[in-house]
Every structure is written in C-alpha cells, then in structure tokens.
Amino acid sequence: MMCFPHIRLSLAMLFGCAAVVLATPRTTVAQVEQPPSITPLPGLTPPPVPPRPLVPVPESVSQAVKQAVNQEFGAALASLQINQSTKQRWSNGCLNLARPDELCTQAIVPGYRIGMTDGVQTWFYRTDTTGQILRLEVFDRAWLPVPVAKQLVARVATDNPVPVANLRVTGVKKRVFDGCLGIYRPRQACTKIALQGWQAIVKGQRRTWVYHLNQDASRIEQNRAASGARTTVRTSFDLFGTPTTDLAQSVVFRRTVSGGLAGLVTTYTLTEDGNVTSLTTAPFIRSHPVVVKTLSPQQVKRFKRVLTHRRFPNLNGLSYLTEAALADYPTTSLQSQRGFVQYIDLEKPNLPRSLQRIILVWERLIQPAEAAS
C-alpha cells in the first residue's frame, strides 16, 4: 500500500501507513555489583589474611596440653587457652619430633598441632587424638619464665606506651651479655662479664620492639636500633642462610641479594681501600669479582660513621621478612664486622628507622655502580 501525505487518509489507511511498532516484553538485566578490587599502593602491604578458624579439640587433649605448659613453664591453668589448632597426621610415634638416637614406631598417628597461650607467650605442642602422647615444638625456640614475661610486657607498655593487653612475646633467644646487656653505644665502655639473659621480641598491634633483659628481669633495656618495625613485617631471629664467618678484616660492609626464581646471588662489597666490588653467582653462572666503583677515603669514613651512629651492631642476628621471602622473592642481607641483618626490600618503609637510614645511605653510595653493572 502506498501512502501520500496530500491525500486525506481514512483512519484505516492511516493505520495502514503508520509504522507498526511491535510490542516486545521489556527485559531487565540485573546489575551484579562487583566487590572493588584492592590494589596495594606502592610501598604498602595488602591487608593480612585472617587466621584460620580453630579446629575443635577434645577436652582430654586441651587439658593435657594445659597441664604440660603449667608444669614446664609455670603458667597458671586459668590463664591458658588455645589460640591455634589444626588437625595433623604425624608420620611416626614421635610425632615427627624424634630426639637424637630415639626409635619411633613407624605408623601414621592422627592428632593435632596446638598453640596454647597465657596471653603473653604461645607454646606449640603436637599431640595424638587423646592427649596421651604430646611433645613440645622446641627447634631453636626459647621461652621466658612466666613472671619474667609479665615484667617485660609491663615495661614495654610503660616505655612506648601501649596497653599491656595488646602485647605478645613472639620471639626469645638466650644470650650471654656483657655489662651493657649487649646493647652497643658509641664510646661506651662495657664490663666484660658473662651475664646470662634473653633477647626478646614483643609485638603490639602496629609496632614490634626488641628488648634485652637479664635472667630475673631486674635489668630490662630496649634495643632502639632494632625496634619500631611495623607489624606488616615479621621481626624474628630466623635467618635465610648464615653470615660469612670468615669475613676479611679489610671488609667494611657487604650487601647480598639472594633468592628469586632465577636463583641469582648478587654481592656488593666495600673494602677499606674504597673499592666496591660486584660478584654475581647462580646455579649455572659464576662471575669474577669486578671493581665497579672506588670511594674516596672521606666517603668510606662517613659511611663507617653512619654504621656507628645508627648502631648497626644492635641489628645483629635479626630478620625483617614477610611471606614474600618464602615465595622466592629476593632477600637482602647486610653484614659488617660486627653485625648481620636480613630484610625484604618490599617492606623498606616499614623497617626500623636505623635500618632504613643505613639502607638509604648505602644505596646512594653505590647507585651509579649498581646501575652500570
């Protein structure tokens, strides 16, 4: 049918010429709101993964572990509670914790790994399903006597200040100190005595502190150079590898970056003559030390002054790492004649200030040489 606008159209023709609009049902697509993706800003760490929920533990197992902690460490039974628990299948009757020359039954033993805390320290035990067999995880760990631990956290709360309820002792190392409790201060003379004590790591909600104390906690001092790391970093005594024990007397400072998927180990060494040498090794690579930069005597002297002023010896034996170090992310080690410390450079802004300053000065000192190599 043809339609002409100058002809009067009948109603029927009008409808015939009109565009036919088909009524189609309206479909509404539900918009699903996606959770915003969290992209960590440079220098920041993503939020920590929430801890696993506790696995229910039989009362007989719980009571057996509480009794063991009470008898071995003097913690009051009423103060103890489980803060970690997982089901396990131990591969032998010694719960995979055989002592030297100990014979263990070779059979699978179902059981638990339990963390028991008094609110200040945590002890880890392995058990069977009844609590009749249990063993303390010792490895290279130590624990403070309960009264000493309470005195320590009270002192930390006073020094910083933070609520005592927010403090936990997360690491303890037995030490033999001099008269200064092993805390280095420039131009300070210390009596050469063998003072038994501990070096302890105390964790708060945001910061971690390192303290030195004698056996009865009558002397407690903060190691300020090693303290102040944010809790996104795990401050501990656990080191990847061991420091070079035969460091030549001519060595002023050494930085080693190791790990990563390629397995590269890159070392920069500063010696007293001002030479900075570079050496890179890998499973199938072995280079020779190459002098990449020479510092003036004044530059060497200034850097040694930084190590002294920032009290590098007080960082000895400590590590500041995260789980990224376990995932093949490179770990950095710094070593001098009097100290060895490790960290992960993802967390440089969250390290103790003394360590941050030493890293900054060193990187500025060798930056052109590092870029060239």
Automatic annotation (TrEMBL):
Region forming the signal peptide: 1-23
Keyword Signal: yes
Highest taxon listed in the record's lineage: Bacteria
Keywords from the named record: Signal
Identification of the protein by name: MucB/RseB N-terminal domain-containing protein
